[in-house]
Amino acid sequence: MARICTEAENFINYGDLFKRIMESAPMPMSPLESLASSVVRTAESINASLILVLTRGGTTAKLVAKYRPSVPILSMIIPEITTDSLEWSCNDEAPSRHCLIFRGLIPVLSSGSVKASYAESTEETTKFALQYGKEKGLIKPGDSVMSLYPSVIKILTVS
């Protein structure tokens, strides 16, 4: 069945599909939806090998999947670590599991860091994601990767 799906997807015109999805998109778009469609459009324009999405609950990654990019979406689910000064808690893997049902999403539950600042945590997670992508054969050195952080789009080159 996987072979049939792969063969069928080889005949999809992703540019045309993107245009049809954009025609039915809500206008005006929410800022998050606008970022999701923009990262897909840019990934297609630069011939990126992967779209990397850092998310807490998976919503951003699901919005990116809605626009049907031709490349895989590596969704790094960053667990939320909270405290009320007496008790620490961390959300479970439910957002990562829920992403499994969306086409093109490859969810990975990242390790959270209590001590790291937001910038340090983002940089650490990005390095881990690129290494994971190389190990799984999704990307190789020299490939372009589109990354979507909360409200930031970046183009990375794999080293």
Task: Characterise the protein shown here.
Helices cover 42% and strands 21% of the residues. It has helices at 2-9, 14-23, 31-46, 59-66, 94-99, 118-135, and strands spanning 50-55, 73-77, 81-83, 88-90, 105-109, 144-149, 152-157. A five-stranded mixed beta sheet has the order 5-2-1-6-7, sandwiched between helices. It has a two-stranded antiparallel ribbon with strand order 3-4. Strand 3 and strand 4 (88-90) form a beta hairpin. Helix 3 (31-46) crosses helix 4 (59-66).
Summarize the structure.
The chain has 159 residues and is of the alpha/beta class. The chain has 6 helices and 7 strands; from the N terminus they run αααβαβββαβαββ. Helix content is 42%, strand content 21%.
Distance between the termini: 35 Å
Order of strands across the main sheet:
5-2-1-6-7
Query: In one word, what is the shape?
Result: globular
Radius of gyration: 16 Å
Binned, the helix content reads 40-55%
Number of strands: 7
H/E series: HHHEHEEEHEHEE
The largest pleated sheet is described as:
5 strands, mixed
The low-pLDDT segments are none
Nearest-integer average pLDDT: 85
Task: Specify the structural class.
Answer: alpha/beta
The percentage of residues in β strands lies in 15-25%
